[in-house]
Design goal:
mainly alpha, 9 helices, Hypothetical Protein Yqey, Chain: A, domain1
Length: 170
């Protein structure tokens, strides 16, 4: 493998692993087809036609030349919620259900801006938020970003923190 091929492969792998926290998108769309790890994994090699970026670029569009000439930007190499859903289906097909749930949570968070994710992360630390503040974050995730799984996660954290006396008291 020459240097250009190696760089192209690295770029493609980065595209498969990066999250897009700038693009607002719907909740992950579940594919009607079943993805099977035995025949479909890794997607980049066995099912590249399924891998698209949020800007609708195909995997084959991501080349060293296109990066160098500027026709591919950082937004073109971010992962799409649909790709994370496909990865979740692969995980489920080999019995990795917990990992599949994590991928679906990640897919929901693509629509949430980076700075807001950091604010939510800090709010979830013990003694940083009141129960009401956490419940408001849960509503925000569900209503503004259609992040139902993450909203339920934050709502559960609020209840657990309340039971364990880990909430900020004003």
């Amino acid at each position: 493998m020459n240097q250009n091929e190696m760089i192209e492969r690295i770029i493609k792998e980065v595209m498969l692993s990066m999250g897009n926290n700038e693009a607002k998108s719907e909740s992950p769309v579940k594919s009607s087809s079943t993805i099977d790890a035995r025949k479909d994994y890794p997607l980049a090699e066995k099912r590249p036609e399924l891998v698209k970026t949020p800007t609708n670029r195909k995997l084959e569009d991501i080349t060293l030349e296109s990066v160098l000439n500027g026709s591919i930007t950082a937004n073109d190499v971010r992962i799409a919620p649909e790709t994370l859903e496909l990865q979740a289906q692969i995980s489920e097909s080999v019995g990795k259900d917990a990992f599949a749930r994590n991928l679906r949570r990640a897919a929901e968070l693509i629509a949430v801006p980076d700075d807001r994710i950091l604010e939510i992360y800090n709010a979830l630390r013990p003694y940083r938020s009141t129960k009401e503040e956490l419940l408001d974050i849960a509503k925000e995730l569900e209503n503004e970003y259609d992040a139902k799984i993450n909203g339920a996660f934050v709502r559960e954290a609020a209840l657990v923190y309340d039971e364990r006396n880990r909430l900020r008291r004003d």
